[in-house]
Amino acid sequence: MQIIQCEKCGKRYKVNNDSGKTSAKYKCSACDHVIAVDFVNADVGSPTPSARAPEPDPGPVRKPAPSYDAHNDQAAMTSDAMEKALSLRTKFNIAIGAVFLCAIVLIYFLSGSRLQKDAEQQVFDKARLLLTTMEASRSFTSKVIKPALYKELPGRFVTEGMSSSFGARNIFERIHKTYPQYYFKHAAPYPRNLINQADDFEMGIIEQFNNNPDMKEWQGYRVKGDQQEYSIMKPIVAKDRCMRCHGDPAKAPKELLDRYGNENGFHRSVGEVIGTLTVSVPSSIVIDKARKNTWVFIGMVVLFFFVLTLIVNVFFAKVVLQPIQKLADNANEISLGKLDTQINTSGGDEIAMLAKAFNRMKISIKMAFEQLSR
Length: 374
Ligand code: HEC
Prior knowledge:
With 374 residues, this protein is an alpha+beta fold. The protein has helices at residues 68-152, 159-162, 164-178, 200-211, 243-246, 254-260, 284-335, 350-373; strands at residues 2-5, 12-15, 23-27, 34-38, 43-44, 183-187, 218-224, 227-237, 273-282. It folds into three domains: 2-64, no CATH class; 71-106 and 292-373, no CATH class; 110-291, 2-Layer Sandwich (Beta-Lactamase). Helix content is 54%, strand content 14%. Strands 6-9-8-7 form a four-stranded antiparallel beta sheet, with helices on both faces. It has a three-stranded antiparallel beta sheet with strand order 3-4-5, with no helix packed on it. Helix 1 (68-152) runs antiparallel to helix 3 (164-178), helix 1 (68-152) packs antiparallel against helix 7 and helix 7 runs parallel beside helix 8 (350-373). The relative contact order is 0.12. Bound molecules: heme C.
């Protein structure tokens, strides 16, 4: 077994000449330099004699000078340290990557669910606002316009001003022109105006209201076509005063019969749920948008981490890796005998302290050699 050393970077290797060759070539794993080995003359890729440490005089009373192997050890150590220093960048990036992954997962779950909840709340609020608007319109017709018209036109029936259902429906038709995705209906199983006919879904809820008189409201999601909507439904219960127009057609105002006929919307009974106030607002659009916003947010965080990693890497290379590399090169040169190597000791950080320690060591070695050679 022989020990060889790379002339370029100083890394040391153990080689076996099992095949009995006179020479061989090896590639340095640290710097890719090709090391030629002459097994016969044992010139094994070591530094040229001029680059070696000065040989001390072999005087009997003097202590032996450090052997060449000791230099090799130093060079090998320096090289190892260099490898470790270089891998610091990888370690550092792995740490940043781990933080980054945790951040993405946290953002996805925390901010994603937050945005989703906000979007849902927006949908609930819109539906509630629409319902309140329609209830207010009904209430205004029945409590303000209708009594005033009755007073002015006793015994007469003016549909436009005296039917709160008619008023609310017409007001919503105007709202619908601006908000075509919003929906309002006096959904009824046996409507007077067929435009108010309840669909299958609404019929199911009306049945629930009829079976549970304590149920004051239904709210939830329903799918219409490829869209999901959030809907609120409130029961409209027939009272005694409603019977004038919804009970026996014989007692109904003439104007109403002329306009709607004597079949639809009659023969209802007090306490019966004769329809529902139904509102729906689109929900899938809003919730999909929240989902998209979560990804936009994550995209921004990815960009931020990318720029941060880039800056940290440049900074790290300049402040830590390059000075360590330089110091390793200096130490390597010293180990090969170049005791005049200049070490940059400027600065006050830990690396500068290390450089100063190296410098002191270099001076001590130099002095030791001078003493020995005297
Ligand atoms: C003076 C007559 C009159 C009275 C009283 C009246 N309604 Fe009506 N109602 C109508 C008319 C007219 C319509 C049709 C409106 C339209 O064209 O949308 C209607 C429609 C409705 C509808 C919508 C479904 C449908 O049949 O087209 C509901 C629900 C309704 N009324 C409930 C009531 C309730 C509850 C009361 C009592 C609190 C009441 N109405 C009292 C005249 C009346």
